[in-house]
Write a structure and sequence with these properties.
heterodimer; A: alpha/beta; Rossmann fold; Zinc Finger, Delta Prime, domain 3; 3 domains; 7-stranded mixed β-sheet; about 55% helix; B: mainly alpha; 5-stranded parallel β-sheet; 4-stranded parallel β-sheet; 48 helices; RFC_lid (chain B)
Chain lengths: ~350, ~1000
């Protein structure tokens, strides 16, 4: 009883629902004996991973679907044991070096190099190289990326690396230039709607277009989220209606409430309560930049035009500081404090002008 | 022993005596000295029966005298002389008193100063004189005769004895003083050899005790009670003074400096040139006696003042004065004067022969005193206000001891008082003087009660109950040990030692400078504690042998390192079956090491005394030391040292040292660098009052008390502060503060990432000083511990859980860690829980199916619940009946095989083994089949894969593979390693 997301995941390049042209190109690529390192980039929920798996299947056949997960242990130079979970088939190895945190460089050096250095003994299979899939590549530290780039060049004969990233901005240019970039954009609204309706059809349900469109909005064109929400909506109310309620994600609700509290009251005491809420969000693993984004969206939409620009200015300023700082809460709080300040000032001026 | 030897000596010289006697008149000095030694023996002969008896009775005491004399060559002659004196005195007077007087004499010569040499010479002179005087002086006749006898008799012996020694002939030939000295030394060696180690040791002990007593002598009684007259600058010029005893209103140094100020000269030894002897209480009896002998006027403190006034032409204020001591001795003095005069005339005759007049005077004085020992004695008693000790001392054997210190004081004072640290100099000498321990509920009182009742409480007959830890008025009767704890410099050790002293216990002290390992404590201390103390025997304090020990373990928190390993346990064991009270001391009562000890100890916590209490003490010290310092300054110093008495005194001493140089530099008080706790720091950062006296540097220093915690504390608490100024500006200030903190965090990151520690001052400004400036005001709420630490670790934990979940579901989902957590988790949980909540037991298979699809462990369910929990939101699992949950767990254990990561989860292993064992065969067979058919290129697996396989095989074998159902579905991956070979 898998979730629909996984149940109806396409497994072959030919069965992909969107970016079909790109899928065709990938298939052609596989037909050649060789292909370069690849870097799939695109937002979360756009189907990068699905596309990579389809590509691998295209290359190696169904063997790549026989996955096994293993825990591998590495010893860092400082003699610390790091355990990293890998998923592998006979033809490929999928690893997320950033699981090792700051020790990802060790993983890159030890594991990837080791795999890359070994030749396939029998080439009677389809390919003479193995594939290493690095997921969440943009989480790699600079050190790890530098360790990777030489490996990519040196062992190109025995392995290919496929990196999956959300944004290429955090990948060093040296790696970017070594990879063939493949952009997997988020599907557009019509594509998502058709996918959702297809899914419902296979489940024997009818999905009103309005509801599908609202799902698209709510999921921010994240296909995974849209499918999950669809299933949740189905659980809530079995035959779909056009205006039925779509359950929200908890953290989104929480974030919205936080923003509205900021608008409702601007005092140090309130700021302290806001701080607690921000802490809660951070504890839940909501990335601080998402928090920033959520707050700013809510705040800007709820405040007067005159302070919108100022709010955005503060947001950019503090988000930038947060990225180079260590403790996220300091900068989130500073942003909230600044916003409270200008908002309060704006309100009091408003009151004064009203008095006149 | 001694006696025997003495007699031995005596006999030997006896024959040559006569011959020598004639020679004795001749100037050979060396022989005379020997004479002195022999005198005693001589007398033994003469008075032998009484002498011996007496000696036996007071053996210890006399032996001490001898040892002293023996140990120091110069002293010897004197010692010898005393012996004869003793015997003589015995006849007239009560022996005890005799002894008292005598011992005093004995000690004087000890120091190897010139004065001593002079004595020797004098001795010789005297002996010469005495021979002449024998008949002339009637009153002293018996004594004199004896002396002459003795003198004459030993001289031959001396000659004999020292004959082997080279210097001797010289001395006979020439009168030169130098050879004499030389001779003495060998003689002394001989003598010392006579003494056993024991005796010597005893003497050392006794003298140490006496010295201690001297040291503990109270300082002046009423400092500053009298006004020091202002005389003309040189009104005392040409006059010499000796100050002895404790004056009423001045310390001795003070008195001396007063005298010097007015042109007078201060001597340390009473000599002929001395013009006035200034006496106070507990005056050195020896000095008094000598002064009387020499007819030196004796002044009281008032007398001194009167003298100053007189000399500078002012009217006398008080008349009573100096005569008082003299009058006491009036009658005796008359006699003495006669003697003196006659002697003096003789002296003059001899002058040409020996130039050492002053020394001679001493000598004469000594003899006098021996004769009239009673007078100084009485005087002393009158003068002695310090009751307990001195009174006891009067008892026979102890009298000597008492006398020891007096002569010593002369020398000791000059050295020690100058060189002593103020802290030691002004140490409390009785428990009343301990600062801040006066009350009835004070620790001193408690400790005294506890200690005094200790032997009653622990006599083995009754078993005291362990008191309720919260009981208010516990007297500690249960405990065998007391633990004094408190910050340094407030008098814990002083309290302990003084209380012990007060109650007459003997203290055995171990402090951090002693090794206190388990073995040492066990061996040494425990044997030590079973010993009996002989000190009572020597000091004559009532019971001859004391069993009342106290073990003082100072600085127990310093028991650390290899040397003291196991010391704490041993100490506790020691306390458990101790037969004596133990007093432990430590600074930090909450130290983990101490905590185990606390359970066995009567807990006495010392608090810092209040500022006013310390101030009184400090001011009186200032006065005594003549340091002029304003009370405000004293307060400042005390506050700066955080009410540390010891350190305050040290600061005052420092101030006084540089006082004359520049008053201004004295103004700047050295402040104790206190380590403040972060709470205190953050309070100071924001409190406006504190800011008044702080420079920018001070403010940034606050940050450095703990630079890693300070920014967190500031960030946590700045919202609690109500800043001064317009209320409408509060938010602006808050925003500015938050901005500064944000910048501070950037600096912090830079510091930590690049080890750029030189940026710390920058961070100090952003993270502490600027917020302090912006939010300067006062706290409205409690200061809290930074929440960031807890939240951070919590989010770290959640992140780990999320990663675990991601790892487990990774095979069958495509999501990244973040998406699994934010998007998947709630739906996944719902998917599992929904059937359970809806259908109860019937929902179990459906839930189990969902779990299997995503390769979840049973634990992952709880983990999911935790990851999706939000404050104020109910856990979906709460809606599920407990029995249903149990059913789920049961069926999960039955059906679901282990995954490769199950081992890490650390559970389940056994169960899966039990459940999956029978499946194993089929599974592996089945899988093998599929494998071989579908993947022949498996062989191509690289060597590196072998490593993987190996690892896998390990897990599979241990865990028993299973999960055939996964293998069958093409979409799902294989959860577990198959027996792939």
């Amino acid at each position: 009883m898998s979730l629909w997301v996984d149940k109806y995941r396409p497994r072959e390049l030919s069965k992909l629902d969107f970016h079909k042209e790109q899928a065709e190109n990938l298939r052609n690529l596989c037909k050649q004996s060789d292909f370069p390192h690849l870097m799939f980039y695109g937002p979360s929920g756009a189907g990068k991973k699905t596309r990579i798996m389809c590509l691998l299947r295209e290359m190696y056949g169904s063997g790549v679907e026989r996955l096994r997960s293993e825990t591998m242990t590495f010893t860092t130079p400082s003699n610390r044991k790091v355990e990293v979970m890998t998923v592998s088939s006979n033809y490929h190895l999928e690893v997320n070096p950033s699981d090792a945190g700051m020790y990802d460089r060790t993983v890159v050096i030890d594991l990837i190099k080791q795999v890359a250095q070994t030749h396939q003994i029998e080439i009677s299979g389809q390919r003479e190289f193995k594939v290493i899939v690095i997921s969440e590549g943009d989480e790699l530290t600079k050190d790890a990326q530098h360790a990777l780039r030489r490996t990519m060049e040196k062992y190109v004969a025995t392995c290919r690396i496929i990196i999956s990233v959300n944004s290429t901005s955090r990948i060093i240019p040296a790696i970017r230039s070594r990879c063939l970039g493949i952009r997997v954009a988020a599907p557009n609204e019509t594509e998502i709607v058709s996918i959702l309706q297809n899914t419902c059809k296979r489940e024997g349900l009818a999905l009103p277009v309005e509801l599908a469109k609202r799902l698209v909005d709510k999921s921010e064109r994240n296909l995974r989220r849209a499918l999950l929400m669809l299933e949740a909506a189905k659980v809530a109310k079995a035959p779909f209606t056009a205006n039925q309620e779509i359950p929200d994600l908890d953290w989104q609700v929480f974030l919205r409430e936080t923003a509205s509290q900021i608008i409702s009251e601007q005092t140090p005491v309130k700021l302290e309560k806001i701080r607690e809420r921000l802490y809660e969000l951070l504890i839940q693993g909501v990335p601080p930049n998402l928090i920033f984004r959520g707050l700013v969206e809510q705040l800007v939409s709820n405040c007067d035009m005159s302070i919108k620009a100022k709010t955005l200015e503060f947001a950019t300023e503090y988000e930038h500081r947060m990225q180079s700082g260590a403790k996220h809460i300091f900068h989130l709080e500073a942003f909230v404090a600044q916003f409270m300040n200008i908002y309060k000032k704006f309100l009091s001026e408003l009151v004064m002008t009203d008095d006149f | 022993m001694q006696r025997g030897i003495d007699t031995f000596f005596k006999r030997l010289p006896a024959k040559p005596k006569s011959a020598e006697d004639e020679n004795g008149e001749t100037p050979s000095k060396a022989p005379k000295r020997r004479k002195a030694l022999i005198i005693s023996s001589d007398e033994d002969e003469v008075v032998s029966p009484p002498e011996t008896k007496k000696r036996k009775a007071t053996k210890a005491a006399s032996s001490e005298c001898e040892v002293v004399s023996a140990s120091e060559p110069e002293a010897k002659t004197v010692g010898n002389r005393q012996k004869p004196a003793l015997s003589k005195l015995k006849r007239h007077v009560d022996p005890t008193e005799l002894f008292g007087g005598e011992t005093k004499r004995v000690v004087v010569p000890k120091p190897k100063t010139k004065a001593v040499l002079e004595f020797e010479n004098e001795d010789i002179d005297r002996s010469l004189m005495e021979v002449d005087l024998d008949e002339s002086i009637k009153e002293t006749a018996p004594v004199k005769k004896r002396q002459s006898h003795t003198r004459s008799s030993p001289s031959p012996k001396k000659a004999k004895r020292s004959s082997p020694e080279p210097p001797k002939p010289k001395s006979i030939k020439s009168k030169a003083t130098t050879p004499r000295v030389k001779k003495e030394k060998p003689a002394a060696d001989l003598e010392s050899s006579v003494l056993t180690d024991e005796e010597r040791h005893e003497r050392k002990r006794v003298s140490a005790v006496l010295y201690q007593k001297y040291k503990n002598r109270s300082s002046c009684l009423n400092p500053g009670s009298k006004e020091i007259p202002k005389g003309s600058p040189d009104c005392l010029s040409g006059l010499t003074f000796v100050v002895t005893g404790v004056l009423e209103s001045m310390e001795r140094e003070e008195a001396e400096s007063v005298i010097k100020e007015y042109g007078g000269r201060v001597m340390t030894v009473v000599g002929k040139k001395l013009k006035y002897l200034v006496v106070g209480e507990e005056a050195g009896p020896k000095k008094l006696a000598v002064a009387e002998e020499l007819n030196i006027p004796i002044l009281s403190e008032d007398g001194l003042f009167d003298l100053i006034r007189e000399k500078s032409g002012m009217a006398k204020q008080v008349k009573e004065e100096k005569k008082s001591p003299k009058e006491e001795h009036g009658s005796e003095e008359k006699e003495r004067k006669e003697v003196k005069t006659s002697r003096r005339s003789n002296d003059k005759k001899e002058k040409e022969v020996t130039k050492h007049r002053s020394g001679e005077m001493h000598d004469v004085a000594k003899h006098k005193v021996k004769k009239e020992h009673t007078s100084p004695k009485e005087m002393m008693e009158k003068l002695n206000n310090v009751p307990a000790v001195t009174l006891k001392v009067k008892k026979e054997p102890s009298s000597q001891k008492e006398n020891y210190p007096s002569p010593r004081t002369a020398e000791l004072k000059t050295q020690d008082v100058v060189g002593m640290a103020w802290v030691d100099k002004h140490k409390p000498t009785n428990i009343k003087e301990i600062v801040g321990q006066a009350g009835a509920a004070s620790n001193v009182t408690k400790l005294m009660n506890w200690l005094s009742k200790w032997y009653v409480n622990h006599d083995g007959n009754k078993k005291p109950q362990r008191p309720n830890p919260w009981a208010k008025n516990d007297d500690g009767s249960f405990y065998k040990a007391a633990l004094l704890s408190g910050p340094p410099g407030i008098g814990k050790t002083t309290t302990a030692t003084l209380v012990v002293k007060e109650l007459g216990f003997d203290a055995v002290e171990f402090n951090a400078s002693d090794t206190r390992s388990k073995r040492l404590l066990k061996d040494e201390v425990s044997t030590l504690l079973s010993n009996k103390s002989l000190s009572g025997y020597f000091t004559g304090q009532g019971q001859a042998v004391s069993r009342k020990h106290v073990l003082i373990m100072d600085e127990v928190d310093g028991m650390a390192g290899n040397e003291d390993r196991g010391g704490m346990q041993e100490l506790i064991a020691l306390i458990k079956d101790s037969s004596i009270p133990i007093i432990c001391m430590c600074n930090d009562r909450n130290h983990p090491k101490i905590r185990s000890l606390v359970n066995y100890c009567y807990d006495l916590r010392f608090q810092r005394p209040r500022l006013e209490q310390i101030k009184g003490k400090i001011m009186s010290i200032c006065f005594k030391e003549k340091v002029k310092i304003s009370p405000a300054k004293v307060e400042e110093i005390i506050a700066a040292t955080n009410n540390d008495i010891r350190q305050s005194i040290n600061h005052i001493a420092l101030l006084s040292a540089k006082e004359d140089g520049s008053q201004k530099s004295g103004q700047q008080v050295a402040t104790k660098d206190l380590k403040l706790g972060p709470w205190e720091v953050v309070r100071k950062v924001f409190t406006a009052d504190e800011h008044k006296h702080m420079t920018l540097g001070d403010k940034s220093d606050l940050f450095f008390h703990d630079y890693s915690l300070a920014p967190l504390f500031v960030q946590q608490n700045y919202l609690q502060v109500l800043p001064q100024g317009n209320k409408s500006d509060v938010l602006a200030k808050v925003a500015a503060t938050a901005d500064a903190l944000s910048l501070g965090d950037l600096v912090d990151k830079r510091i930590r990432a690049n080890s750029a520690w030189s940026l710390l001052p920058t961070q100090a400004f952003f993270s502490s000083v600027l917020p302090g400036e912006h939010m300067c005001g006062h706290f409205t709420g409690q200061i809290n511990f930074p929440g960031w630490l807890g939240k951070n670790s919590k989010s770290g934990k959640r992140a780990r859980l999320a990663q675990e979940l991601h790892d487990h579901t990774r095979v069958c989902t495509s999501a990244s860690r973040l998406s699994v957590r934010l998007d998947y988790a709630p739906f996944l949980l719902n998917n599992i829980v929904r059937p359970l909540a809806k259908d109860g037991q019937e929902g179990v298979p459906a839930a189990l199916e969902a779990m299997k699809d995503y390769h979840l462990l049973r634990e992952d369910l709880d983990l999911l619940v935790e990851l999706t929990s939000w404050p104020g939101k109910k856990s979906p699992l709460d809606a599920v009946d407990g029995r249903v949950k149990a059913a789920l767990t049961r069926s999960y254990n039955k059906e679901v095989m282990a995954y490769s990561y199950s081992a890490q989860a650390g559970i389940k292993k056994k169960k899966s083994e039990a459940g999956g064992a029978d499946d194993l065969a089929e599974n592996s067979g089945e899988e093998d089949g599929t494998h071989i058919s579908s993947e022949e290129d498996e062989d191509k697996d690289n060597i590196e894969l072998d490593a993987l396989i190996k690892a896998k095989r390990k897990t599979t074998t241990s865990k028993s593979a299973g999960g055939s159902k996964k293998a069958s579905s093409s979409t799902a991956s294989k959860p577990k390693a198959k027996a792939k070979k």
